[in-house]
């Protein structure tokens, strides 16, 4: 080996200038994986929290709707409920709630045919997602509605609004990095004011406590 080549070989053997770049090349995939996984999990948690808040706000608003004075029992109609569901969609924003999910609003009331038990009086839904709720509007003689140990009931001469929001999560980076794609959040609120649970038959054609409005299509399930 000639002297210039020998000197070059010695300099290369003792050079440490590019070590950090090589180390960074080894660490970068790991750091990238950890960072993107963290971002995916964070986005999932935030999305689930937003769906939970939508369910809670929807139940709260459903417990407040109605037309009438403080001296009257308030009545609710299909327009009230449709406005309620539209508001939930607007609150969801870019989550695209009604294309990626389904919302169900249920009125839980006392069952007149079974003392001390409850029934689902009416139910309204909106959303394209297929969701098989364990609670449908033909259910009667219930001890309560909801998961075991957390069932909700209706007050005497009143009603409780039960809301289910089923949603398909859209991954931020990769589906495999999110805990799951399907999420279901529930919430309930007792009706605040006196509500006319059984309006006059001449104004309540369906006899479910929700008044029809000409030209308004009910969001039936």
Indicate the mean pLDDT.
85
Computed structural class: alpha+beta
**Number of structural units classed as domains:** 1
- Span of the ends, CA to CA: 87 Å
Global Rg: 29 Å
Shape: elongated
Total number of beta strands: 6
Biggest sheet details = 4 strands, antiparallel
Q: Which segments are poorly predicted (pLDDT under 50) over 5 or more consecutive residues?
A: none
Characterise this structure:
The chain crosses the membrane at residues 24-46. It comes from Sphingomonas yantingensis. Keywords: Membrane, Transmembrane, Transmembrane helix. This is Flp pilus assembly protein TadG. It is a single chain. This protein is an alpha+beta fold. The chain has one domain (31-211). Helix content is 34%, strand content 19%. The chain is built from four helices and six strands, in the order H-H-E-H-H-E-E-E-E-E. A four-stranded antiparallel beta sheet has the order 3-2-4-5. Strands 1-6 form a two-stranded parallel sheet. The longest helix is centred in the N-terminal third of the chain and has 44 residues, at 19-62. The chain starts with a helix and ends in a 10-residue tail after the last strand. The mean pLDDT is 85.
């Amino acid at each position: 080996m000639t002297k210039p080549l020998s000197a070059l070989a010695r300099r290369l053997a003792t050079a440490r200038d590019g070590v950090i770049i090589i180390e960074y090349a080894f660490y970068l995939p790991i750091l990238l994986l950890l960072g993107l996984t963290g971002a995916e999990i964070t986005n999932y948690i935030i999305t689930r929290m937003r769906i939970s808040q939508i369910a809670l706000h929807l139940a709260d608003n459903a417990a407040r709707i109605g037309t009438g004075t403080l001296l009257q029992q308030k009545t609710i109609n299909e327009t009230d409920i449709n406005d309620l569901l539209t508001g939930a969609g607007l609150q969801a924003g870019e989550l695209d709630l009604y294309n990626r999910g389904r919302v169900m609003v249920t009125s839980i009331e006392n069952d007149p045919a079974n003392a001390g038990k409850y029934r689902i009086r009416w139910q309204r839904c909106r959303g394209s997602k297929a969701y098989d709720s364990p609670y449908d509007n033909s259910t009667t003689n219930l001890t309560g509605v909801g998961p075991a140990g957390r069932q909700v009931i209706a007050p005497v001469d009143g009603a409780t609004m039960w809301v289910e929001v089923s949603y398909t999560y859209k991954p931020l980076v990769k589906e495999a990095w999110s805990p799951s794609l399907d999420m279901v959040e529930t919430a309930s609120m007792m009706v605040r004011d006196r509500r006319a649970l059984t309006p006059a038959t001449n104004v309540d054609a369906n006899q479910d406590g929700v008044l029809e409005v000409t030209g308004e299509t009910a969001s039936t399930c």
